[in-house]
Design brief:
D-alanine aminotransferase, binds 4'-deoxy-4'-aminopyridoxal-5'-phosphate, pyridoxal phosphate, 2 domains, D-amino Acid Aminotransferase, Chain A, domain 2, nine-stranded mixed sheet
């Protein structure tokens, strides 16, 4: 069961207006939110980020955080997500339906769509790590907006898959930005490095949690750009996202990172993240 523009509809029969601006232009924003044991993780941070993304594209969100939470809870109920289940919630706001012109029509009404589905945590991959390919960041210059225009991400992920890798690490003129749908961290001499949260990356919520956990536990975090040479000479690499959590990256373009095993700092952060999930107050 999906939520589409105020109605509850079965998957497969939901209709999109051919002139929905999300459909025509990718004119909209979205969030993917983790559900652990039937409860929402980092709900406030996701809603704040969604509101920020909407503001950056000059879109007014007509729903309060409480209204969005009611819809999220109903999506879980209607899709049989219980206290036993890990799952994900997708929420998207398109700018709405209007005769097709590029500039923003004055009277357009945003369209909210959401779905929730069971999704296990990727625990096996977290133990073994992923292989990545290094690929030019061909995306736009407002990666800080969680836009539904994702063609750049689709293409770089597919380039990575075509080389036999599981994900893409992106660089702009040799400076490492992030992955196709995750943030990237390098570890050198026990310290963490990640691209600063500016217009070239999405400020990931998992990234923020990891930075906070690292700092609280005495690890130094540098939010500053690093290049591909530093990347390949790192002691450890890992990526972070809502669905991947803390995911080791063990090789880049077929070259092992250090000894090609999941490193000890990454493992420590995985443990801290695990504890955080158990202790955090989820809604
Ligand atoms: N960067 C990009 C480009 C992403 O698409 C995502 C996931 N949506 C992230 C980073 C990670 O963000 P989060 O931890 O909030 O899922």
């Amino acid at each position: 069961m999906l939520y589409v523009d105020g109605k509850w509809v079965e998957a497969g029969v939901a209709a999109v207006d051919p002139e929905d601006r999300g459909y025509n232009f990718g004119d909209g924003v979205y969030e993917v939110i983790r559900i652990y044991k039937g409860k929402l993780f980092q709900w406030d941070a996701h809603i704040e980020r969604m509101e920020r993304s909407a503001k950056e594209i000059q879109m007014k969100m007509p729903w309060s955080a409480q209204e969005l939470l009611d819809i999220a809870k109903q999506l879980m109920d209607k899709n049989g997500i219980t206290a036993q289940d890990d799952a994900t919630l997708y929420m998207q706001v398109s700018r709405g339906n209007s005769p097709r012109v590029h500039d923003i029509p004055g009277d357009v009404k945003p369209v909210l769509m959401g779905f929730a589905r069971k999704k296990d945590r990727p625990l096996a991959d977290q133990k073994k790590g992923l292989k990545a390919a290094l690929i030019e960041d061909i995306r736009w210059l407002r990666c800080d907006i969680k836009s539904i225009s994702l063609l750049g991400a689709v293409m770089v992920k597919q380039y990575a898959k075509d080389t036999g890798a599981q994900d893409a690490i992106l660089h702009r003129d040799g400076i490492v930005t992030e992955c196709s749908a995750a943030n990237l961290f390098a570890i050198k001499n026990g310290e963490l490095y990640t691209h600063p949260a500016n217009n070239l990356i999405l400020k990931g919520i998992t990234r923020d949690v990891v930075i906070e956990l690292a700092a609280k536990n005495g690890l130094t975090v540098h939010e500053k750009p690093f290049d591909t040479k530093f990347l390949l000479q790192a002691d450890e690499l890992f990526l972070t996202s809502t669905t991947a959590e803390v995911m080791p990256v063990i090789s880049v373009d077929g070259q092992a990172i250090a000894d090609g095993q999941v490193g000890s700092v990454t493992q420590k952060l995985q443990t801290l993240f695990e504890q955080h999930i158990e202790e955090a107050v989820l809604v």
